[in-house]
Design brief:
The complex is a heterodimer of chains A (317) and B (292).
Chain A (H helix, E strand, L loop, with lengths): L3 H27 L7 H18 L4 H23 L5 H20 L1 E6 L2 E6 L13 H19 L2 H11 L1 H6 L4 H27 L9 H14 L4 H17 L6 H16 L12 H12 L22
Antiparallel strand pairs in A: 1-2
Helix pairs in contact in A: 1-5, 1-8, 1-9, 1-10, 2-3, 2-4, 2-8, 3-8, 6-8, 9-10, 9-11
Chain B lengths: L1 H33 L6 H17 L5 H29 L4 H22 L14 E4 L2 E4 H23 L1 H11 L1 H6 L4 H26 L7 H14 L4 H21 L4 H15 L14
Antiparallel strand pairs in B: 1-2
Helix pairs in contact in B: 1-5, 1-8, 1-9, 1-10, 2-3, 2-4, 2-8, 2-9, 3-4, 3-8, 5-6, 5-8, 6-8, 9-10, 9-11, 10-11
Classes of the chains: A mainly alpha (317), B mainly alpha (292).
Chain lengths: 317, 292
């Protein structure tokens, strides 16, 4: 029914969206800071990576890395000046920055000859004929690496500090947590993820236009985090897969997709503000063991279920 | 000639600023009571513009009736949003993050609901006022004049309600301290109801003015973001701040546009970042302290 080419496209899109959502999950889900401008970071990453591969002829991996670092640098700069702001003002600042980045690229005209080819960055028309380096294998590999990294980060001291900041910043500060540093770390990591995902996006679509990074995109990413459950990595994965891949397969819903998004957010906030996973993780370890036990046949019984918490399981908040 | 050009731009700026003011007082009123940025307000404005459009083109009502319908429609919508979306959160004393997320959800819902049910194509209002008046060499379109008059009159009425009536006193009290106001016997639900109603009505007016001057489309919300910037610039939560901020932003935007029209949006958002870095409380805003 569906060709592999089509399915692969959806999978790649899910992969880089997942990477963005993971980053946003660190910022919003774990640290409780709301970003309205994440598409801006994706935008920076996309453009930087394309300049790297097309104008300077750098390899794909290096371009992604540079894209991530550029985005992270911007995130650090933004964090430095806005993390002291209280309440809504941080999210307003991200809104301003996200839109400003898009508008800068909307007005930016660049053109130079590199390696015998003319590289043209033409404002709102964007960049065309970008080499399609992003394959499903590469995308999956990157996402797997970053999933592991996120899980490790969140179970570390830094991750716990972020959770503390989200729950009560004042109390966290009183307990000796450097809240500014925690927030800064979350901001940088989140921007890094978004930048790399931007590079993947650019080399998947083959063209770039500033209007691909509208504010609606930012809010869509945030919705995925909320839908999956704030403060849960498997929740973010679930949210992304459900909200990214499913509507692609059900193209018939078309325009109603975002109507459903908006409605879902409102209902989730009223009925179950913790999202699908409610700040918990799917017990991946247990599931794998259970499946392993099934395949091992009836020779031996399943290992007794752990009393107490799984080491990989997130502390309930 | 030169002075006249600048005067003309100034009038255009005041026109735009007046419209921003109608929108931004809605943001500011809600922020002053409930301490969150009501991003659904953009959707309310957009729906107002559509109500006006269909009242004029499908129902063929006179302009004034269409105008009042806009206010009514948007006011109703704002109240419905408050009742269905914010009220349950308010009863649970949810953190303000949840309010912003819900507001965003409501705004996405409204925008895409209009795209899905009507369609996404921009529409032009029928021309109502095409003639223009010449005042001392200044050419002033009747629609621009109307914009200025409508903005000024509605804002004056709003200020009168806030400053001179009993409910206005209650609103001011709640904006200082909602809990203390409730203890003094103020019905805070009623205050919130009135605040959303007034913000909604003005949003409807603004939507219609915007549609008449520019165009009606589901993504008007991106323009209303600029009025939100104006509210931040003037100081979130301060009504005079929102009005002054809007006028200044409108005038500055027009002058930037007269230098390079591509830079007008960029200028607005750059100004937003600058304000947040230098003085987050804006020109006249109240300072928000993080209370434990």
């Amino acid at each position: 029914m569906f060709s592999w080419y089509y399915i692969e496209g959806i999978l790649i899109q899910s992969c880089y969206t997942l990477l963005i959502v993971l980053g946003l999950s660190i910022l919003t889900g774990y640290t409780g800071m709301f970003s309205f401008g994440h598409a801006g970071f994706v935008c920076i990453g996309a453009y930087v990576s394309v300049v790297c591969t097309m104008a300077f002829g750098l390899p794909y991996w290096l371009a992604l890395l540079i894209a991530g670092l550029a985005s992270m640098l911007l995130g650090a700069g933004l964090g430095k000046i806005t993390l002291g702001l209280k309440g809504d003002y941080f999210c307003i600042a991200t809104l301003g920055v996200g839109e400003a980045i898009r508008l800068i690229f909307n007005n930016l005209q660049l053109s130079w000859t590199a390696r015998g080819k003319v590289f043209l960055l033409d404002g709102a028309k964007g960049i065309a004929s970008i080499p399609l380096y992003t394959t499903f294998g590469k995308a999956l590999l990157i996402v797997a690496v970053f999933l592991t990294a996120t899980a490790l980060l969140m179970n570390s001291k830094h991750g716990r500090s972020m959770l503390a900041v989200r729950e009560d910043e004042l109390a966290a500060q009183m307990s000796g947590i450097n809240t500014f540093r925690s927030k800064m770390l979350a901001m940088c990591m989140s921007a890094l993820y978004a930048g790399i995902a931007g590079g993947m996006l650019a080399h998947y679509f083959g063209y770039l236009q500033p209007k691909m990074f509208l504010m609606t995109k930012s809010t869509e990413y945030t919705i995925m985090v909320i839908f999956g459950g704030m403060g849960s990595i498997t929740g973010s994965v679930l949210g992304t897969v459900l909200l990214c891949a499913l509507p692609e397969l059900l193209r018939a819903v078309g325009d109603w997709r975002l109507v459903f998004y908006g409605l879902a957010v409102i209902i989730i906030m009223i009925v179950r503000p913790k999202g699908l996973m409610g700040g918990k993780e799917l017990p991946v370890g247990k599931i794998i063991r259970a499946i392993g036990g099934l395949f091992a046949g009836k020779k031996k019984d399943l290992p007794p279920p752990d009393s107490g918490t799984d080491p990989g399981e997130e502390a309930q908040v | 000639m030169d002075a006249q050009y600048y005067l003309q731009q100034l009038v255009n700026g005041i026109c735009l600023g007046g419209m921003y003011a109608l929108m931004s007082v809605g943001y500011s009123l809600v922020y002053s009571i409930m301490n969150f940025s009501n991003f659904a307000h953009g959707g309310v404005i957009m729906v107002g513009a559509y109500v006006g459009f269909f009242a004029l083109t499908a129902l063929h009502v006179p302009f004034l009736v269409a105008f009042l319908l806009c206010g009514l429609g948007s006011g109703l919508l704002a109240i419905i949003i408050e009742r269905l979306v914010y009220s349950p959160l308010r009863k649970r004393h949810a953190p303000s993050l949840y309010f912003i997320i819900s507001a965003m959800g409501a705004s996405i819902f409204l925008e895409n609901f209009v795209i899905a049910t009507i369609d996404g194509t921009p529409r032009n209002y029928p021309t109502i006022f095409s003639n223009s008046i010449n005042i001392g060499g200044l050419s002033l379109g009747v629609d621009s004049l109307l914009m200025i008059i409508v903005s000024a009159v509605s804002l004056l009425i709003l200020m009168f309600i806030i400053q001179k009536t009993k409910i206005g006193l209650a609103i001011r009290a709640c904006s200082y301290n909602e809990k203390a106001g409730t203890l003094m016997g103020i019905n805070s639900s009623l205050v919130i109801f009135v605040v959303f109603l007034m913000g909604g009505i003005l949003a409807g007016f603004a939507g219609m003015l915007y549609g008449m001057r520019f165009i009606v489309k589901p993504t008007i919300g991106q323009v209303t973001n600029k009025s939100f910037v104006a509210a931040v610039f003037g100081g979130l939560g301060s009504l005079p701040g929102a009005i002054v901020g809007s006028l200044l932003l409108g005038i500055m935007e027009i002058f930037v546009a007269s230098i390079n029209s591509n830079l007008r949006d960029l200028f607005v958002y750059a100004l937003l970042i600058l304000v947040l870095v230098i003085k987050p409380s804006g020109l006249m805003g109240k300072v928000v302290e993080d209370k434990a």
